[in-house]
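pinging the channel bc i need a second pair of eyes. not urgent but kinda urgent?? the chain im working w is below, pasted from the shared doc
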Amino acid sequence: MRLFNHKDRIAKTLSTLLLATIAATSVANAQTDSKPKLAGELRNIPEREEEFMDWGLGLFVHWSIDSQLGSVISHHMDMASDKHLDRMVNELPKTFNPTDYNPDEWMQLAKLAGVKYMVLTTKHHSGFCLWDSAVTDYDIANTPYKKDIVKEFVDACRRHDIKVGFYYSPEDFAFNYKAGYPARGGKMPKDKHAELVDFTKVQIKELLTNYGPIDVMFLDGGHKAVLTQYCHEVDPNVIVTRGEMVTPEQRLPKNPIPGPWETCFTLGNQWQYKPTNDDFKSGSTLINMLVETRAKGGNLLINVGPKPDGSIPIEQEERFRELALWMFVNDEAIHDVRACVVAGDKGHAYYTQSKDGKYTYAIVTKFTERDPVPNNRIWGRGSRKEFLLPELVANENTTVQVLGQDHRSERYSDRIDLAINFENTKDGLLMDVIRQQRLYNWRNWPNAVVLRFENVDFVQPEEAVEVATDGKEFTSESGITWSSSPVKTKGGKLASGLFDKTGALAYAENTGGPKLTFDGIDFRAGTTASTTVLGVAGPAYAGYAEGEQIISSGMYPAPATAIPELRGLNIGSTYRVQALFYDQRPNQEGQHVIVEGKNMGRYANGPGGNGLLVSGTFVATADTQSFKLERTANDGKTPDNQIQLNALVLHQLP
């Protein structure tokens, strides 16, 4: 079976499709400023990101021809023998015939569970396409099934009013194998990289133009900066998640993250279908993951792996039906909500809030020690629970209701007192709540119970500030080991020698300027292909340099929080990131830098402006790595706006 012919099929198709793309791009550019666009200029439309934040819950589908093997999706091709790769490319397509694929059944289950958008692996790292791509024969058209799985998926999404999302991998192991280079392309010549990018752009354009408007693109692999921009050029309305947002994988952040973000999890321990030896999360675990994600402001993208025949395994369906029951009662605490001032993970509940601020939802996942059974999470029907919500304080106008439950009884019984009692105490809001709705035949309920409050306030307790001293290290939850050291100034200028140019990979974006070289590093935006690595709300100024000295401040725009995302990392490699903070303005004295919740020290010390150099080392466990930067006033606690970041350098260490 012929995969593709580099000399005829790609050349012919690229010459047709890319010329059309170039022509369209030229017309678009002619209608805008003639100067070159800075890397990273095209971004998600804010209104579309707001829509994305409303959805809350998505369904990820990992499915490809190697589901026939029950293997990890695609990655078994890395470090594989030629025989293995040849069979993967030339044999497996011949037996892929998912005759039980019924996307309407997928959508019905998803919608019942409260899913608002679905993301299908249109092409994973193997390179196999679930649609008939013009630039490869390694696709669904060359299987016994032949029909366009992507089209069937999109049509079903629209029939059931579910937003359409595509996962797409720029990495293509089959492309590399046919080209005679290692599966991950680590030593691929630059001209081959360019060919792969062109090949990838054709496929992205096929996906974004052949199926009507697409809501979400999830880019998983190299060249994200270039391809994110290309997605926006083809369809300005598409929402790029991975590639533009913070997208942790198989983990939740410790603290809420501002703006849109998304985390993805497997139901078991493998993304694709695993016929045996899998260990599935319980329905309760799935519910609690969703609750915590929404309380921290993110979307949960939970994964299923269909069987080779296209059906969803019963074990995975069961988890979604458990979630469906919970969402049937409590979906208003998940959809169209935002994170609160506290997530609530240190108390007995997590919190979300309706966008208009009218309702606050306390999603109770655990109870107080007053419960006679230690660590008891079971709440029996008709029983009362007494527990504390230490984050809340009530007032004379406060009202509260258990979602899904009312005083009305279809049994015409007046013996049940459904009154909810609450009292402000020095330790928080003491609740006395009865759960009466019978959701299981077995009367005990193991899952979260949601209280809907009106007119309730949050308590914001004072917390001591721990300041890191020079050389003191700490390791954050993200796995980065951080340290900081003060930087002295002379005459209001920062001395050179702070950064090592060796191994420097990527630098902060900036607005440009005539003199932006420091320590031999050119900080002008777009100077290297790897420059655009920061997933932040605005550009970071590298300051204004004179010779080898930085003499003016850089900044992130308000608010005083930024979440840089380092992209295109090699998994298993060790990196060092250095961030320089400096402010010489006389009225900026004593500001602190907070990195991942840890106070790293002061960086603005009055006239002359001593600086702070923060360094972090980590081993990449994914191809992206994010971290949170904040600024406080000189008390070390009060949030302040416009954190001053002069420069950011990423090094790959030997």
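so Residues 109 and 320 are 7 Å apart (CA to CA). and The first helix runs from residue 6 to 30. — does that match what u expected or am i reading it wrong
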